[in-house]
Specification:
- The protein is α+β, with helices and mostly antiparallel strands.
- It has seven helices and 20 strands.
- It has two domains: 293 residues, no CATH class; 39 residues.
- The protein is 17% helix and 37% strand.
- The strands form three sheets. Strands 1, 2, 4, 11, 12, 13, 14, 17, 18, 19 and 20 form an eleven-stranded mixed beta sheet that branches.
- The longest helix has 15 residues.
- The protein is elongated and about 70 Å long.
- The protein starts with 8 loop residues before the first helix and ends with a helix.
């Protein structure tokens, strides 16, 4: 029973939490659906798309990001017979083969709070930090009384590729764990109830976590081979990690190869697309859920092999639109252009043409004064 209070904050949150069914969480029916009539769609749409990330700062929400020096995997459609739609992050999943992924304390705190931000939650003020190669989680537990708690835990990986969080030290308002359990009437069954569908279970005194389920869509799967706290980051290694990175890998990019994938109105079969960081001095700041704004601000080139190379600025470098005054920032559509470079050319031409009447009036005025 002592283990109950020695778990990270998200475990406490199961107390008094109402059961709810979310998309994709319902148990599959044992009855097979009827075979659909008519065409079954394009079989090529079912082929996976090879997917790589190199030196990418991947934003998974407005408040959380992952630092990815290397990731190799495949995108797979979640709708058989229909291609992956990159704009719809529910339309595909990412199967990671090899990767190294790091997350800082601020992003992990945001993800933990996102997971338990709902009416009736028994947790508040959740904060994650890293101290002396341990994960430290602080917060307040509400069950009759509001009790601050601190959990210090080591992080490792189980033989079956799951993250193991082992409590090393627990503080809960200075009250010993056994007394706290008795005070709150917490049973072990209350803690683990309903958690398997969220990737959380208990083994002896350890919490076993499928960390990928904490992330927003798209769904992610992969076999974890290492997890540890390194300085101010929680680092997870999938497969061979950085050892699988090609020696020829250069720059910062996200690439898609083979298979069929759709971006906006563009559909690529036998895909050959790279999204490339315009400024390679630091990691590619990429926001997949809002990539269109980066796409509009960049430009594209075709390769002789009919591939596409799209150069994008970092998401954090995009200019903010003006919110006051009559002036506004021009857009590509203002000049009938499809790329930022074309828009710049069109903008200059437009400005020069708009100055013609003013120039004529100025020259006429000078001519009149000279002959007065």
């Amino acid at each position: 029973m002592i283990v109950a209070l020695a778990l990270p904050a998200f475990v406490f949150d199961t107390l008094d939490r109402p059961e709810r069914v979310t998309q994709g969480s319902a148990k599959p029916s044992s009855k097979q659906p009827d075979e659909p009539k008519g065409p079954r769609g394009d079989d090529t749409a079912n082929l996976p798309v090879d997917f790589d990330m190199h030196n990418v700062h991947l934003r998974v929400s407005d408040t959380a990001a992952l630092d990815i020096p290397w990731l190799h995997g495949r995108l797979r459609t979640t709708h058989p017979g229909q291609p992956i739609v990159f704009d719809d992050q529910q339309s595909y999943r990412i199967d990671i083969e090899d990767a190294e992924i790091a997350i800082d304390a601020a992003s992990l705190t945001a993800l933990v709070n996102r997971a338990f931000d709902y009416k009736g939650s028994s947790l508040s003020n959740l904060r994650v930090s890293f101290e002396q190669n341990q994960l430290v989680q602080r917060g307040t537990l509400h069950k009759g009384l509001s009790v601050p708690f601190t959990v210090r835990a080591s992080v490792s990986v189980t033989p079956d590729g799951m993250m193991k969080i082992h409590p090393e030290k627990v503080k809960a308002a200075g009250v010993p764990s056994t007394k706290m359990l008795a005070l709150f009437g917490v049973e072990l069954g209350d803690i683990i109830k309903g958690r398997p569908d969220r990737g959380v279970s208990l083994r002896d005194n350890d919490m076993i976590v499928d960390a990928t389920r904490m992330l927003p869509p798209p769904a992610i799967a992969g076999r974890l081979t290492s997890a540890s706290v390194r300085g101010d980051r929680l680092v997870q290694v999938f497969g061979r990690g950085l050892a699988s990175r090609p020696r020829a890998a250069r720059g910062n990019y996200v690439s898609f190869r083979t298979g069929t994938i759709r971006f906006g109105k563009l559909t690529m079969t036998d895909a050959d697309l790279q999204l490339i960081d315009i400024d390679p001095k630091d990691a590619f700041d990429f926001y997949s859920a809002k990539y269109d704004s980066q796409l509009v601000a960049g430009y594209s080139k075709n390769t002789p092999q009919h591939g596409l190379r799209t150069y994008m600025p970092d998401y954090g470098d995009l200019r903010k639109p003006r919110t006051s005054g009559n002036s506004r920032r021009s857009t590509l559509d203002d000049y009938g252009c499809s790329t930022a470079a074309g828009a710049a050319h069109g903008r200059g031409f437009f400005n020069r043409v708009s100055e013609f009447p003013q120039g004529i009036h100025r020259r006429a005025a000078r001519h009149t004064r000279a002959h007065a």
